[in-house]
Amino acid sequence: MSKVKELLVSPGPHIRSGASISLIMYLVVAALLLPTGASVFYFGFQAVWLIVACIVSSVITEFLIKKMRKRPFIMDGSAVITGLLLALTLPPSLPIWMGVIGSIFAIAIVKEAFGGLGHNIFNPALGARAFLAVCFPVEMTTWTKPVGFGADAVTTATPLNPGFVIDNGMTSIYKDMFLGNTGGSLGETSALLILIAGLALVIFRVIDWRIPLAYIGTVALFMFAAGEDPLFQILGGGLMIGAFFMATDYVTSPITWKGRLIFGIGAGIMTSLIRLYGGMNEGVCFSILLMNALTPLIDRMTKTKPYGLIKKTKSEK
């Protein structure tokens, strides 16, 4: 008798992509090098040390947690992204040790406590930023002017701060905000480089264009309807980096295209409401975290019906 080979049928989907998790992660890291370079150019060595400290402490924390959980440690790049994204959302003058605490919290609590990559509910970098904002409110809201290398940091107000003074007209402000020559978090100042990096990820299909388009578009429309300057709101704060690099996180964003549109629109509405009526000048961090919490519900509401499925009638049940 001839041997009959076993036919193993795994659950769908059956379409296989050549892109691995590591490849995707490091493509995102490569794209983030653009805003990272701008942060180093504008804020000098302090930016370098803060970024390095966050990345190294994130990787070490993940390694130790994996060993404690008796799980294999794989250098897939996810911890690097968490540390880098966290650093880019922090004020340039933040003490290094606070960045280290934030990185440990991001990996140990927001990520690994839920089971690791693929199981976390919230974006680890944003969860850590929210944690630091609650623990160190003064340090997390102290901003400095872009001074470059070798110069002393000078405290300033960010464009979204009520105390921000417009000296040379709006055209000059738009230019500074677009290029990055203004106060803010390390990686949120240069809208130009964030846009280039984000569009590169869209072109290479690393991220879906629906979330950033819906997010930024909703903020623009909402602010226009409210009588605010839409361009100023788009270029100011962390909207650009949040839309392209935070809201598009695979784990914490919806899996359906309808769900992603809903996610982006919801984040845009929440960001606008926080900026207009809340007690904070920003709103990107908490709006994305709130939408992360709603992602399972959005997926359930927008899941597609299997092809050929016929619902049973009451008499058939």
Portion in beta strands: under 5%
Cα end-to-end separation: 45 Å
Helical proportion, percent range: 55-70%
Q: Could you describe the largest sheet, including whether it forms a barrel?
A: 2 strands, antiparallel
Overall, the morphology is globular
User: Which class of secondary structure composition applies to the elements?
Assistant: mainly alpha
Number of domains: 1
Total strands: 2
Order of helices and strands: HHHHHEEHHHHHHH
Helix segment count?
12
CATH fold category name: Ammonium transporter fold
Tell me the strand order in the biggest sheet: 1-2
Q: Provide mean pLDDT, rounded.
A: 86
What is the correct CATH architecture? Answer: Orthogonal Bundle
Instruction: Please tell me how large the radius of gyration is.
Output: 21 Å
Residue stretches low in confidence (pLDDT < 50, at least 5 long) are none
The CATH class is identified as Mainly Alpha
Summarize the structure.
The chain has one domain (21-302): Ammonium transporter fold (Orthogonal Bundle).
Describe the structure.
The protein has 317 residues and is an all-alpha fold. It has a single domain, classed as Ammonium transporter fold (Orthogonal Bundle), CATH 1.10.3430. The chain contains 12 helices and 2 strands, in the order H-H-H-H-H-E-E-H-H-H-H-H-H-H. It has helices at residues 21-43, 45-68, 78-88, 96-111, 124-135, 170-179, 191-203, 210-225, 230-235, 239-246, 257-277, 284-302; strands spanning 143-144, 155-156. Helix 11 packs antiparallel against helix 12 (284-302). The radius of gyration is 21 Å and the shape is globular. The termini are far apart. The mean pLDDT is 86.
